[in-house]
User: Fold this.
Amino acid sequence: MALTLWGFPAAFKTQKTLIAAKYVGVEIKTPSFEFGVFNKTPEFLAKNPNGKVPVLDTENGSIYESNAIARYVARLRPDAGLLGASFYENALVDQWIDFSTNELEPARGVWAYTIMGALPSQNPKPLQEAKKDVEKALSILDAHFLHNTFLVGNQVTLADIAVFCALMEGYTKLFSPALQKKFANVLRWFNTVANQPNVAAVVGKITFATAEAQAAKPAAAPKKEAAPKEEKPKAAAAPKPADDDDDEKPAASKKANPLDELPPSSMVLDSVKKLAFSQRPILPDFFEQLWPQYDNAGYTWFIFNYKYNEDNTVYFKTGNLIGGFVQRSDAARKHSMGVINVRGNEDEETGPFKVSGAWLFRGPGISAEMIEENPDSEYYDWVKVDVTTPEGKQQIKDQFLAERLEGEKVLDRRYFK
Assistant:
């Protein structure tokens, strides 16, 4: 049986499935496509309304979310043992896959995206925290591999495949030789998995990093020369008390915010906020009044979706999730505004509940204040929206005002102003 997998063959979320397919002896086709075009077509959105990859086409329909796809492929041949040899081992496989998704991959993502330049590197705090989280995950794995060859049982399972794929970029690009040696048990296991024929057939030969990758430093802004000031006659200084310190102490300088140094915008965000919330909960025709004055060069809109909606099974906890997100965004208040929603079934009882929203930032991207001060922001996929198009405008308006999103009822909505 041939299956079709839409995704990037070099991406770790795609490689999980391709390796599993080698173990179960299933042929998977990976056609080329143009991302940003193909995934926005009605045909693709019928497969995955999120417009993301990977997506697996089967004879019964399409499946999205990388772990669900990999598990589907592993189940095609139970005797291959990828899901464990008992109910208990089944649960252990799921445990380690969830460990990879929740503990390892978010931190690995912040580390990798900062090195790639997709996240700002001016403030080292998020990167330092990500490195600590990766090392914590590695220490847990290292303790396990002190007495075990594989994560579950005595053979490679889908758990090994998932964790291996999540760590591959670390070992080939991010981790210094010293860090690799620090967790010797993990390194031994990683080499064992890398040398399995079914794994090597997908990822090829592993070349380990010889130094830790460094983020490119942003170019320094040119200094402005201060205009000469006209000297004014000075009043005679009062004599100092004998015990005064003769050294003049400079005043503490406040850290400059690069957003304050952007060229002036024709749109004043404070005025936009006053307009939006001049009527509770929001002015019904706010967007009809916003778009004629909107400064597309000075501001950027994003749609964001929570990465782990499958975990939002309890309604009040999901409400706490979005409430916490708004509170932790306070540092970005001066330069942004937004909305975050919970949607789901009519009864507010049956999960999982989905979280999404729309956010406006000053400047060309997500503000450093959001990335640095709100740790929850890394748990969302952020997609820039082109609001010069009617479709983009409608996407933003729906997040702020629509009673239903993607066919589901909006159960809770919080505005950030």
About this structure: The first helix runs from residue 12 to 24. The longest strand covers residues 336-344. Strands lie at 2-6, 27-29, 55-58, 61-64, 299-306, 336-344, 354-362, 380-385, 404-405, 408-416. The chain has three domains: 2-80, 87-203, 265-416.
